[in-house]
Design brief:
CATH topology of the largest domain in chain A: VC0802-like
Distance between the termini of chain A: 14 Å
Radius of gyration of chain B: 23 Å
CATH topology of the largest domain in chain B: Rossmann fold
Number of strands of chain B: 21
Oligomer: heterodimer
Shape of chain A: elongated
Shape of chain B: globular
Strand content of chain B: 15-25%
Largest sheet of chain A: 6 strands, antiparallel
CATH architecture of the largest domain in chain B: 3-Layer(aba) Sandwich
Structural class of chain B: alpha/beta
Number of helices of chain B: 11
CATH superfamily of the largest domain in chain A: VC0802-like
Number of helices of chain A: 5
Largest interface: A-B, 19 and 16 residues
Helix content of chain A: 25-40%
CATH class of the largest domain in chain B: Alpha Beta
Helix content of chain B: 25-40%
Distance between the termini of chain B: 30 Å
Number of domains of chain A: 2
CATH superfamily of the largest domain in chain B: ANL, N-terminal domain
Number of strands of chain A: 6
CATH architecture of the largest domain in chain A: 2-Layer Sandwich
Amino acid sequence: MIIKQLSVFLENQTGRINQVTDVLGKNGINMSAFSVAEGSEFGILRLIVPDPEHAKEVLKKNGFMATITDVVRLVTPNTAGALAKALNILASEGVFIQYMYAFSAGETANVVIRPNNIERCSQILKEHKFDLLKADTSYQI
Amino acid sequence: MIWNQSCECMSREELRDLQGKRLREVVESVYNNTPFYKKKMDELGVKPKDINSIDDIVKLPFTTKTDLRDNYPFGLCNVKMKDIVRIHASSGTTGKPTVVGYTKNDLKNWTECLSRCFTAYGAGKEDMFQISYGYGLFTGGLGAHYGAENIGASVIPMSSGNTDKQLLLMQDFGTSVLCCTPSYALFMADKINELKIDKKSLNLKIGVFGAEPWTEEMRKEIEDKLGIKAYDIYGLSEIAGPGVGFECESQAGTHLNEDHFYPEIVDPATLQPVTDGECGELVFTHLTKEGMPLLRYRTKDLTSITHETCDCGRTLARMEKILGRSDDMLIIRGVNVFPSQIESVILGMEEFAPHYKIFVERVNNLDQMEVWVEVREEYFTDELEKMLALKKKLSAAIHSVLGIAVPIKLVEPMSIERSEGKAKRVFDKRKLK
């Protein structure tokens, strides 16, 4: 399932990530996934939040530059080989992954994928009966 | 050693007579041949006949870099183009370079000045010169080249860059005199250490360093690391190029070749002459130049002058090390950089907000400049690669204007202070005093 991810531009300086989480916390915005892409002197924070458009406005008001990006959200069983199976299929279908991040809790593992062709990626996973959560529930992980 | 005893050690009275005579000639010539100067002198009500001695120089108009730019490229040429045999140029604020033309005589006099410099450093026929200043429009390479040939030395026309090859030839050819910017000399010295090149395999004796400001500390460091004696050479393309001034073995200031270029120090605010030893802006008047003679050219360099005879026997005036510049031009690794050049590149790209900061410092004795700039929100993307590509695009655009590579740092929106008045854009953290 295609969902909206919030991306935030950050300079690499101590305490800057805290300021983002602080702003979100004070505005009652709960993050369900969080990852950092790091360049030499800046980074890009990637977040899954319940209402990305609202969160973007909140961050903007507080001086942050943010943008919304489509990503694919995939849930697999938290067992050995489950992710490999999904990725093998994507690779064999020629889907290139620009970046991804994953985490597991209890029975399930959650994967956020940014492929080169998002529609196709979503389609392939659906055809192979991978559990792609619907947008309304997917922001709560 | 002294190359031209009769000129370099002439009595002050004789020198002043010679300067007065040459000034009359040059004023007569520019008044009749360069409309720019006729107009300027007419505005001040000065005629060539009013110039009877060197003291009358204060009656003459000043010339600024802006005048050179306004008359780009050959408006200040005082001879017909057929008499110009060489053209050099340095970078300017608007992307248009400052152009200078030389006649055959001008090149001969310039070469004479450089011969005086090299001889003062103790170099001669036996020496192997490695000229690691850039060759081309920049005056450094070709200027030093002809001077070194003129004293009968062997010359390796290396130009700048390609450090590995520099060091290879330095060892294999037995370079004894190295000519380059002081920061590049230190860079090479560090490379020699890094590559564990045995200093005994080198034949280096003398370093001729200029084209950028440097400190006594740097001199000591270069001398220790390379096992040489390091000398300052001063110049600017508008006046001739390297060789306007040089240090002698006493190293008690930089001698100015004032039989060719008459130096004055003026208060940059009032433009009134100041006394010996007092700091002000260095101003030169060409006394022998034919191609593009300038009257009272304001160098923007801040220094002081003494006319006392030096221990070396030369009577030529000596100036102190340059303290700084009276305008905002930055000299980065010998290259003139104007913040406005960087500004115009940033303003020309819609991906970036029109606010920036320039940081300059010395890291491992090399000038480092970094430009901070904000990406506009519309161009912010989630993909690191695209953001890095934005950086590269700006970096390439600045490189093509300045001719030097400048790292870019992308910063958060609104993180650079907005200012209604004159914003502080440049943070030069180099310590040169």
